[in-house]
Design a protein that fits this description.
The protein contains 25 helices and 20 strands. With 696 residues, the protein is of the alpha/beta class. The N and C termini lie far apart (96 Å).
């Protein structure tokens, strides 16, 4: 039990409430007690103590002494203390050292901000405060494990580590020793109960010369573990980097680190690893508890116990007031995959893009501009969030292909719209059914050129999501374990950019049916499929990440991926007559070629058996002739007929070249040879309309 010495303003009332809290108010925290009955501390009080229930603290009450400096609780307004009767004869604040390093009031605790107090959007919000508000529950849980003497491994993005490490260790009440090097930024002691490795008075002085930074950190960690006292917690901010970041055979770095950490198995450790990096299982097993802090919660709790949407808790009043129709609840599905730091960066970016111009007046109560001709809307905010995510990613982009840009295929569009309605409304579904109702992904299969990738982009646009198109062979790698690592990184980046759509083109090249053969290629392919299954089974409905595979050979796809609970197969076949008419209209309008309804019907009839890409090429080549090829030549019915004829001639040529011809050699053995025929002269396909007839 942690011990604190306090000097209350009203000792009798403070003592009575503290004693009765065990029975009447078991959840009463120190912060709530000090808010009602202010008290000074003989030492600078760590803000983490304010969230600890008083029944878990040993509070000792002391009388005021004019010769002793007193410290106000963090976040408590000094004017509140001044209004109360001072415990000193010389005045309410007499003898209190208010220098910045000696107890000045610094509202670092986000619970003192407006959101945690239930006052709506905060006025200002730093990145650290956003992290502590969003992950308060996880921080308290990790601190409780540390307090119990259990080592904790936290899986989170690197951007969160600097905010979480000190906070978790501080709330545990244990003196902390953080792994840093001499000369590193912030290497000084972060408090009276912490020390930096290599800092004066800390440890790590015996780090070896040479060997690089990793070797120095490893040596410092060895010293920290060896010198740690029974009540200490050793904080390792980047365990994955020390371990080499691989899940292959145990590397020399991982062997050294394993030896160091197991040297004193009773030493309490707090370590962090990034989701995109993997540490060997033997290292992970050193930790009694593993926690994951990856996505934002939908709601956070205030001090009063009220639940508020994260879209209110992590968005300032000015940011929410700027965008007309701002919906704190609906915002979640567009930011769920982002961590708190990236969310704050994205919101600052969006506010910067639409902030009032210089000279415009702003209503301080709502953040609205008075003279602005058009206020930005919530839709503008969603778009800016998508753009921000795409710009901060090396691969994802913002698609702009609506379903209306795809001609025909009404049945496919209807099926996809039904599924996307469920994906987009996942937050409104009953929680116990959400995981079952939201689809993981689709497999678009059918002949080449039918628009499978185009449909995937339309799906992303419909979801207001970012998109990444990956060719299947890009994932495969010659080194053991690298293909699985690439798949993990793809999914991790997709979750950070959610809502997101990941398209695996040539899906059959990485998701082919697993075999029992023992050659290296088969083992590698089996491992990729297994990793895909693992990622799909870890699907989170609140983080919309849709996986789409496109293939011409669905018969090659592993059966485990075709289960209804994983991928939903959708066939995109050659267009029927109605689809061809729609495709002709869409591409004629896109390329600026005037076509009458009769000509649309004629071209649709003449292109029977052709795919959408081939129909598009007719209008593309016709328009190219008008602009650069032969400026005097119009893309009329005759020219379109010539282009369709050329397509059919080229197809016949390819089919003829593929036909084997059987013959016999002089020794009587049968031979199979491929016969290559000369190129056919391009002939025109007749296009007959009501107003004109063009013969070949």
């Amino acid at each position: 039990m942690r011990s604190l010495t306090l000097v209350p303003i009203d000792p009798t009332a403070f003592q009575d409430r503290y004693v009765l809290a065990e029975i009447d108010e078991p959840d009463l925290t120190l912060g709530e007690l000090l808010a009602d009955l202010p008290a000074f501390s003989l030492t600078e009080l760590d803000p983490a103590y304010l969230d600890v229930p008083v029944r878990r603290l040993d509070l000792k009450l002391a009388a005021s002494d004019p010769s002793t400096a007193l410290y106000p609780p963090p976040g408590l307004d000094l004017t509140t203390l001044a209004a109360a009767r001072s415990p000193r004869d010389s005045g309410p604040a007499s003898g209190v050292d208010t220098a910045p390093d000696a107890g000045t009031v610094d509202v670092a605790d986000p619970a003192e901000r407006g959101v945690a107090a239930g006052l709506g959007h905060p006025e200002t919000l730093s990145e650290r405060e956003a992290v502590l508000i969003a992950h308060d529950m996880e921080i308290n849980r990790a601190a409780a494990y540390l307090e119990s003497g259990l080592s904790v491994l936290v899986r989170c993005e690197k951007l969160l580590v600097e905010h979480l490490a000190h906070e978790i260790a501080g709330r545990s009440g244990r003196p902390q020793r953080t792994l840093r090097l001499v000369g590193a930024a912030g290497s000084g002691s972060s408090g009276s109960d912490s020390a930096a490795l290599g800092a004066p008075g800390g440890f790590g002085a015996a780090t070896p010369l040479g060997g690089g930074r990793r070797a120095e950190l490893l040596a410092a960690l060895q010293t920290a573990v060896a010198d740690a006292k029974p009540g200490d917690v050793v904080v390792v901010p980047h365990l994955d980097l020390l371990a080499g970041g691989t899940d292959a055979a145990l590397t020399s770095e991982a062997r050294e680190l394993t030896d160091v950490l197991y040297e004193r198995s009773a030493c309490v450790l707090l370590a962090f690893t990034d989701p995109s990096l993997v540490i060997p299982e033997v290292l992970a097993n050193r930790f009694a508890v593993r926690l994951s802090i990856e996505i934002l919660p939908r709601e956070v709790a205030t001090r009063s116990g009220e639940r508020v949407p994260v879209g209110r808790a992590l968005v300032t009043r000015a940011e929410a007031g700027l965008f007309d129709g701002f919906d704190a609840t609906d915002l979640y599905k567009y930011v769920a995959g982002m961590n708190a730091v990236r969310l704050r960066n994205a919101l600052r970016f969006a506010y910067h893009q639409h902030r009032p111009a210089i000279g415009e007046q702003v209503d301080p109560a709502t953040g609205e501009t008075i003279s602005q001709a058009r206020r930005p809307t919530f839709a503008d905010l969603r778009h800016e969030l998508r753009v921000f995510k795409a710009r901060t990613s090396s691969s994802f982009e913002v698609p702009n292909v609506p379903f209306s840009a795809i001609g025909g295929y009404d049945d496919v569009k209807a099926e996809l719209r039904r599924a996307l309605t469920i994906v987009g409304g996942a937050v409104d579904l009953p929680e116990h059914l959400r995981h079952d109702l939201v689809p993981r992904g689709f497999i678009f299969h059918g002949p080449p050129g039918t628009g499978k990738t185009l449909f995937a982009k339309a799906v992303a646009a419909q979801l207001a999501a970012t998109i990444l198109v990956v060719s299947g062979p890009e994932v495969t790698d010659m080194y053991v374990g690298e293909s699985e690592r690439k798949v993990r990184e793809l999914f991790a980046e997709a979750r950070r950019n959610a809502p997101a759509v990941v398209v695996f083109d040539e899906f059959d090249s990485i998701a082919a049916r697993r075999t029992g053969r023992d050659d290296g290629g088969s083992r590698a392919g089996n491992a990729i499929v297994a990793q895909l299954l693992t990622e799909l089974d870890g699907f989170r409905p609140e983080v919309p990440v849709l996986i789409i595979g496109t293939t011409n050979r669905i018969d090659l796809i592993d059966d485990a991926l075709l289960r209804p609970s994983r991928f939903r197969p959708i066939r995109i076949d050659l267009p029927d007559p109605e689809a061809r008419r729609e495709i002709v209209r869409v591409h004629a309008e896109h390329f600026g070629i005037a076509v009458s309804p009769a000509l649309v019907d004629a071209v649709a009839r003449a292109t029977e058996g052709l795919n959408g890409d081939e129909i598009r090429s007719v209008f593309r080549d016709g328009r190219a002739d008008e602009l650069v090829g032969n400026p005097g030549r119009r893309a009329d019915a005759r020219r379109l007929g010539e282009l369709i004829g050329a397509l059919r001639a080229a197809r016949q040529q390819r089919e003829q070249e593929r036909k084997p011809r059987l013959g016999r050699s002089g020794d009587g053995q049968r031979r199979v040879t491929l016969v290559v025929t000369p190129s056919h002269t391009t002939r025109m396909v007749p296009i007959v309309t009501d107003g004109e007839s063009v013969a070949p």
